[in-house]
Amino acid sequence: MRTYAYGYPRLGENREFKRLLEGYWQGKVSSDALREGIAELEATRLQTYQAFVDAYPVGEMTLYDPMLDTAIMLGLHPVDPNNLDAYFELARGANALPMTKWFNTNYHYLVSHLTPQTEFRLSWHKPLHAYRKHPKGIPYLIGPYTFLRLSRGLTPEELPALMEPLTHVYGELLSLLKESGAKYVHVDEPAFALDLPTSHLRAIREAYERLGTNAPLIVFTYYDSVDFLPVLYDLPLAGIGLDLVHGKRNLQHIGQFGFPADKILVAGVVDGRNVWKTPLGEVAELVRNLQSRTQAEIWLSNAAPLMHLPVTVEPETKLDPALKERIAFAKERLHELQLLKTLLTTGETEATRAWNAYQHATDHWYSQAVQERVANLRPEDFERALPYAERDKLQRARLNLPLFPTTTIGSFPQTPEVRQMRQAYRTGKISAEEYEQFIQDQIRHVIQVQEELGLDVLVHGEFERTDMVEFFAEKMEGIAFTQQGWLLSYGSRVYRPPLIYGDVARTQPMTVKETAFAQSLTQKPVKGMLTGPVTIVAWSFVREDIPVEQVAFQIGLALQDEVRDLEAAGIPIVQIDEPAYREKAPLKRADWESYFRWAAQAFKLAARAKPETQIHTHMCYSEFSVVLKYIDWMDADVITIEATRSKGEVIEAFEHYNYARQIGPGVFDVHSPVVPSVESILTVMERVIRVIPKERFWVNPDCGLKTRKWEEVIPALRNMVEAARQLRARYGS
Ligand code: GLN
Ligand code: ZN
Asked: Whose CA is nearest to atom 6 of ligand 1?
C-alpha cells in the first residue's frame, strides 16, 4: 500500500505565488527573480509531498494556469513559453483568452478556442522538463479528453474527430517520457465525471487504447463518479484514480463489480474540496472493504486536487480552538494520508486516535431556535402570499416606473480611496464614526450621480463591502473566518472562503442602515442589495453534519429577516444576488432536479417578501437555456442577467422558453473599459425586444460596476439612459 497526493496548492504558505506574479507585472520583480521564486515555491511543494506521501506528480506548477500551458504545449498559441511577456499576454493582455469556471469549483481556467480544422503540434515539452529535473516524481498532464471538452468552439458532434490528431501529439510526448525513464504518467481526466455522449466514449476508448501503449498511464478522475467504469477497466491503463468522497457511485460500482487486479486503484479517500478532518477509522474500514473486493494494488490518495483547500491550518491563531481541531487544509490532508497508511498497516496509534477524536462538536455552535425554525418549515412557508401576476399589479401601482426602467446591479466603483478607508477602519486607524461618515458621503455622492443620470431605480453603491459573500458571512453567527485560508481564483487572484461550522443566524440588521440612508436622500426607489443563500453556501466551506440544504435554509431565513427589516424601513425593492445558482449545480444532469429544488427553495425563503415588495435577482453568466426553467422556479419578480458577451445566446433561450416575469438582460459589458455608445446599446436592446415583451424589459449593465473607474461608468450609464429614452420614444405609447 502506498500513498499518493496531487494538486497541492501552488500559492505558497504566505501567498508567495501572488506576490511574485504581481511584482513581476508591476515591474518590481525581474524575470529571473520570478523564475527563481517560482522554482523555489515548486521545490517547497515537492518537499512537502515528500515529507508525507510515497509518490506525487511533478510538472503541476504553472505561471498562470495549467489549461493555458496545455494549450501552448499542444501548439495552439505560437508563443515561446520562456518569453514571459508573450505568455502573460495570453493570460491577461488585451487579447487574453477568455476565462471560465473549472467544473463546479471556484477556480477559473483560460479557455482555448478550437475549430474542426484545428491542428495540434507538440510545441512545449513542459512535463518532460519537469520530470528530468525531478525524476522522483510522476510526470503530470491534463488529458486529451478534458482539454477538448473544456475548450470552446466545437459542437459535441465535432469533438470526437479531434481526439484522433490530438492523440498523436500526446502519444509523442508520452513516448518521450517513457524513454526518459518515467515509470508512470499522471493523466488528469476530470471530464470523465461529466455526462458523456456515446460518441465521446468511443473516442476516449480509441485514444487510450493507443496512449496506454505509449507509457504506463494512471488516469485521474474526480469531482464525481464515472459512469463508464467498465470501459476504463478494459483499457490498457496502469491505474485509475477514483473520487470516493464525492463519487459515491464509484464505491457502489466497486462493491458490485470489483476492480481489475492488474491496475492500481488510486483511492481518493481524503476530501480535496472541503475542510473537515477525515474520520480515519471509518475510512480505514472503507479501504479494508475495497481490499476485500479486489486484488489490485491500492494507493491512498486525495479525492479531487488539493488546490481547492488553503495551504495549512498552522498559522490560524484566531480560530476557535475547537474548530481548528476539526479542520484539515492541504498539508493536513497529506498528514491524514500518512496516518491512514499507518492505521492500515500497523494498526491504531496515539496519533490516529487523536485525529479520529474530533467528531463530537461543541454545543455552543448550535442553536435550537434556528434548528427548530428550519424543522418547522411547511411547504407554504417557501411561497409568497400572491402569485407573480398579482404581485406585479401591486408593484407597478406602487413603483410607477416608466417603460424600460433603468437600473444598475448594485456596486459602483471601488476606488483606491474606498479600499484604503475600509482597510483603515479594519485595522483601527480610523474610528467607526469616521468610517460611517465616509460611507455616508460615498452614498450621498452615488445617489446624486444616479439622479443626475436619470436612472429610475437607484442603489446605495455597496461601498461598505469588500466581497459580496464575506460581507454577509461576517455578520452572521455560525460562520468563521481564517486569517490565511486563501485560495486561488484565477491568475494571482485569491479569496478566502468563510467556514460555515454551526447554525447560522443573523444577530442584527446587516444592510438596513446604508440602504435606508440612501432612500432618505431621494424620491426615486432605492433597491436593497443582498447576497443569496445559494451563493453564500457555494463560496464557503460548509459543515457536513447536516444536509447542505438545511444550511441554505438557515441562511435563507436569516436573509428573510433582513428583507422584512428593509421593508419596514420603506425599501420597495430588494435584489438578492445569486451568481452561484448555476455553478453550484452537480456535474451530472441526473442530479440537477434535486439540487435546483432546494436551491430555489432556499432562495424563496430569503425572498419571501410582501407582495408589493419587488424582488430582483441577478446572475452573471450565459449558458442560459439549460437553466432557465430552474431560474423560473425562484419566482423572482425581476431577473438581471449577463447578455452582452453571450452573442444572442441568452435571447435565444427566451425564444424557447416562455418566461413570464421581468428581465433585465445586461445591455453593456462591465468587464470591458470601453464606453458603449448609445447605438451599440440600442442594437442589443432591439435584439432583445424581439423576444421579451416591452412591459417586461429592464435596462441595466450586465454586472456590478465595482471594478470600473468613474470615468468609464458615468458616460456608459449616460448612454444607457439615453438609449432607454430612445427606445421609449420608439415603442412607448
Ligand atoms: N450586487 C453585486 C455587485 O453589483 C453583484 C455582483 C455579482 O453578481 N457577482 O457587485
Ligand atoms: Zn454579476
From this structure: 704
Amino acid sitting at position 722: E
Q: For 399, how many CA atoms within 13 A lie in the half-sphere containing its CB?
A: 26
Handedness of CA 205, 209, 215, 217 (dihedral sign): positive
- Locate all alpha helices (DSSP H) within 381-427, ordered by sequence: 388-399, 416-426
> Of 338, 356, 374, which residue is a domain's last?
356
- As a whole number of angstroms, the distance between CA 227 and CA 195 comes to 8
Same domain, 170 and 293: yes
- Checking if the pLDDT of 648 tops 70, the result is no
- Residue 347 domain flag: yes
Per the structure block, which three cell numbers stand in for 548? 447542505
Read off the pLDDT band of 363 (50, 70, 90). Answer: confident
Q: What is the CA radius of gyration of the chain?
A: 27
**CA of 529, closest atom in ligand 1:** 1
Q: Is residue 273 included in any domain, yes or no? A: yes
Average the pLDDT over each of 131-135, 418-422, 626-630, 725-729 and give the range with the smallest value: 626-630
Summarize pLDDT for 515-538 with one digit per residue, the tens.
Answer: 999 999 999 999 999 999 999 999
Q: Supply the mean pLDDT for the chain.
A: 95
From 155-159, 351-355, 401-405, the region with the lowest mean pLDDT:
351-355
666 CA to middle of ligand 2, Å?
Answer: 9
The answer as to whether 378 is a domain residue is: no
d(CA 379, CA 18): 47
Q: Are residues 350 and 406 in the same domain?
A: no
- Range with the poorest average pLDDT among 270-274, 303-307, 466-470: 466-470
Q: Is residue 720 part of a domain?
A: yes
Is any ligand 1 atom within 6 A of the Cβ of residue 333? no
Residue 152 C-alpha to ligand 1 middle, in angstroms? 26
Residue 405 belongs to domain spanning: 387-731
pLDDT, tens digit, 9 for 90 and up, residues 379-414: 999 999 999 999 999 999 999 999 999 999 999 999
What is the DSSP pairing of strand 264-271 with strand 239-243?
parallel
Q: Are 344 and 407 in the same domain?
A: no
Ligand 1 touching residue 703 (CB < 6 A): yes
574 lines ligand 1 (CB under 6 A): no
Smallest CA separation from ligand 1 atom 3, residue: 704
Question: What CATH number corresponds to the domain at position 406?
Answer: 3.20.20.210
**Boundary-marking domain end, from 304, 338, 356:** 356
